[in-house]
Amino acid sequence: MIRYDLHIHTTASDGVFRPDEVVFFAAAAGLSGLAVTDHDTLDALPEARAAAAEAGLVLTPGVEISSAVGGVEVHILAYAFDEDSPHLQHLFGEQSARRRERAEAFLKTFKERGLLPEGARLPDVKSLGRPHLARLLAAHGTVQTMSEAFDRYLVPTAPTFIPKPLPPGEDVVECVRRAGGVTSLAHPGHAVPHRVIMALIEAGLWGMEIDHPAHDDMLRGYYTELADRHGLGKTGGSDFHSQASAALGSHGVDTLPF
Ligand code: AMP
Ligand code: ZN
Ligand code: FE
Ligand code: FE
Predict the structure, then answer these.
(1) Domain presence at residue 215
(2) 67 lines ligand 1 (CB under 6 A)
């Protein structure tokens, strides 16, 4: 029985629904609570908290932090941290500056190649990501779908690709720990190598995301065993971004693990 969806994006990063809208969806799905976990920003939390209080839902502060371990990009979910932590605020300040710089570099490249008109603008969002560029390409008719935008212009194999500088995952785990929070490795089934998982556990990782749309029964079983073997906590969530994602509330946990 899923009562808490612990992986949800909003318009503060690359989701398409506002914080109050995802809270409405959580209530409509019959959940007891939710965590809003935007990429590298806490901007959605005040609005989400107010909406959750009004709807009688538990709102757990969360965030999904992009990082790299041994050259592999990994996403680290963090929960129940001190939102005023100077360590976290410093990290998110750096991350949003890097994201804006990268988005502007993509925009420049696309304009130079005639894929976007001179007047094309990035949205006014703290934590920009590739989905914002995909939507811009689609809005100008350069591509028909988001996945066409990714496949042709936004993946590492595309000639227009620009990499994102990432902090070491081990440092992110330590930073969240110092902010009094817990960390959970997001969607390990997205091809995260075993050596990377072990390096994060060594660095003090708290838990792993078990229930996620990218995981089938076999992967859920595999990661459950791995978590049990290393005494890790277990989290879950839908990774809701838009109408095209798995439904909000379709993945999660039955009790809050932290
Ligand atoms: P970024 O943080 O800028 O690297 O963008 C990563 C985000 O883009 C992920 O969190 C997904 O939401 C989205 N994404 C990544 N690959 C694809 C894809 N092939 N199609 C659609 N969305 C994608
Ligand atoms: Zn995303
Ligand atoms: Fe992710
Ligand atoms: Fe996510």
Answers:
(1) yes
(2) no
| Residue 8 is assigned to a structural domain of this protein | yes
15 touches ligand 1 (CB under 6 Å): no
In a domain, 168, yes or no: no
Could you tell me where the beta strands, DSSP code E, fall in 105-252? 182-185, 207-211, 233-236
CA 3, distance to chain mean position in Å, is: 20
**Any domain includes 137:** no
CATH number of the domain encompassing residue 37: 3.20.20.140
For the CA of 149, the nearest atom of ligand 1: 20
Ligand nearest to the CA of 238: 4
Distance 39 CA to ligand 2 centre (A): 6
C-beta separation of 238 from 214 below 8 A: no
> What is the total count of domains within the chain?
1
Q: Does ligand 1 lie within 6 Å of residue 39's CB atom?
A: yes
Radius of gyration, alpha carbons of the chain: 18
Residue indicated by tokens 């995981």:
215
Report pLDDT digits (tens) over 45-83: 999 999 999 999 999 999 999 999 999 999 999 999 999
- How far apart CA 198 and CA 101 sit, in angstroms, is 32
Domain that holds residue 194: 4-88+181-236
**Which residue among 9, 13, 14 is best mutated to probe the pocket of ligand 1, counting the most ligand atoms within 8 A of its Cβ?**
14
- Entry pTM: 0.97
> 97-155, pLDDT tens digit by residue?
999 999 999 999 999 999 999 999 999 998 999 999 999 999 999 999 999 999 999 99
Which tokens sit at 68? 């790299």
